[in-house]
Amino acid sequence: MGLFDRISRVVRANLNDVVSKAEDPEKILEQSIIDMQEDLVQLRQAVAQAIASQKRIEQQYNKAQTEANSWQQRAQLALTKGDENLAREALGRKKTNSETAAALKAQLDTQSGHMDTMKRNLIALESKISEAKTKKDMLKARAQAAKANEQLQGAMGRLGSNNAMGAFERMEEKVLMAEARSQSAAELTGGNLEEQFKLLESGNGVEDELAAMKAQLLAPSPQPQGTLPPSKPASTPSKSEVDTELEQLRSQIDSL
Questions:
Q1: In the UniProt record, does the keyword Coiled coil occur (predicted)?
Q2: Where are the domains of the chain?
Q3: Interaxial angle between packed helices 84-161 and 163-218, expressed in degrees from 0 to 180 and rounded to the nearest 10
Q4: CB neighbours (10 Å) of residue 76?
Q5: Per the count of CB atoms within 10 A, which of 17, 52, 70, 85 is most buried?
């Protein structure tokens, strides 16, 4: 018996595991709502049958009570007419109908109690189904979000563990190195141009200074205000003196 119990337990455990893995929350939620709605239909049918049975019993009770009252009146009429035998017969019929009415009244009271219970169960089931429908949409959305997150985490795990991510990172590093080499080459080329322009700018500055000095030497000196001009014009330096000074300046520039 111990071996068979263990085998039975293993079989049940495996079956439960298979069923648990096969359960899709969205499908199970839909099926649960369908099952509850079927139960609701059956309960409504039971309530409708109970109401019809209660009405039939109520009709029988009213009829028996009416018959009892009728035979009561007939017994009084026969006794008034002096016919005791007929009055006795009427009272017997009245007793039978009264007993029938009493039995039907007890059955009607019991039926009313069952009817109230069934109506309360019907209202409770309708409320549960309405609540379940509201929760179903929310639970389906949560299940879908959980499934999507699980798939995303799995994809992230595969990216971190396979060679594709490593190859991607290597290619990214190569692109960064190529950009760095390109930037370095551009900076070197730009540096040569800067040096060339600096040389050109320094040459222009010497020529400009030379032209300014020539203009200063050739321009007449200004006369101070309030003084009379000299009787003789100021003597201008000769051309040989200017050329000599120019040669000296050029020698100074070349020695820089």
A1: yes
A2: 23-161, 163-201
A3: 50
A4: 13
A5: 70
Condensed to tens digits (0 to 9), the pLDDT of residues 77-135 reads 988 888 889 889 989 999 999 999 999 999 888 888 888 888 888 888 888 888 888 88
* Owner of token pair 């070197």: 188
The residue ranges of the chain whose pLDDT is under 70 are 1-24, 155-166, 168, 185-207, 219-240, 242, 254-256
